[in-house]
Amino acid sequence: ESLPSWMMKNQLHCCLPNLVRIEMKGEDCKLTHLCSFGRLPHLQHLWLWDLNRVEYIEDDEDNAPVNRQAITEVSPLFPKLETLKLWEMPKLEGWRRDSRNTRGSAPPPSFPRLKELYFSEVGFEVIPDQFRGLSSLQTLEIRDCERLKEIPESIVGSTSLKTLWIE
Questions:
Q1: Which of 50, 63, 77, 164 is the most exposed place for a label (fewest CB within 10 A)?
Q2: Taking residues 126-141, what's their average pLDDT?
C-alpha cells in the first residue's frame, strides 16, 4: 500500500545515487502518489505504467521537510533523464501536488536532456508546467489521453522535435 519510508522522505538519491533506469508497474497499486525521482543524478529512463490510482508523481505532503530556497537553487530536476514514459495512469492530474501554498514561486528547471516523452492513457487535462520548454525533446507521443484539452505550443513548437505522434 505504500513505498518504503526512505523513498518517501526524499532520500532516494542518497540511497540509490547510481540508478540509471526505473520501471514501475502496479496494476493493483493503491498508491495515489509516488516519490521524488527527480533528484536521482544519473537517472536516464523512467517508465511508469498501470498505476491506476496515482494522481500525482510527487506529493509535497511527504514527511520530509523541504526547503524551497534550497530546491530552486539546486541544479535541474532529472538532470540526465532522456526517456519518460507514463502509460495507463487514468487518474494522473499533474506532476506535483503542491500543498504548501508556494504559488507564485518558480518551479526548479526540469528535464534538460529529455529526448523522448510518451503519454498513453493519462488523466491530464493540461500538460504540467514541468514539461514546458523541453529544449532537447526529439520525440513526443500522446495516445488515448481523452481528457487532454490542449498541447502547449512550447512543447510542439520545439525546434529539436523530430517525431510527433498524437492518437
A1: 63
A2: 89
Q: Could you state, in order of their start, the residue ranges of all structural domains in the chain?
A: 5-166
Burial 22-31 (b: 16+ CB within 10 A, else e): bebebeebeb
How far is 161 from 140, CA to CA, in rounded Å?
Answer: 8
DSSP E strands, 61-155: 83-89, 94-97, 116-122, 139-143
Task: Report helix, strand or coil for 141.
Answer: strand
d(CA 62, CA 51): 19
Buried b (16+ CB within 10 A) or exposed e, 113-124: ebbbbbbbbbbb
Name the strand (E) or helix (H) holding 53.
none
Plot region of 54 (φ>0 → left; ψ -120 to 50 → alpha; else → beta): beta
Burial annotation 2-13 (CB, 10 A radius, 16+ → b, else e): eeeeebbebbbb
Give the pLDDT of residue 79.
94
pTM of structure: 0.84
CB of 57 closer than 8 Å to CB of 33: yes
- Domain boundaries 5-166, corresponding CATH code: 3.80.10
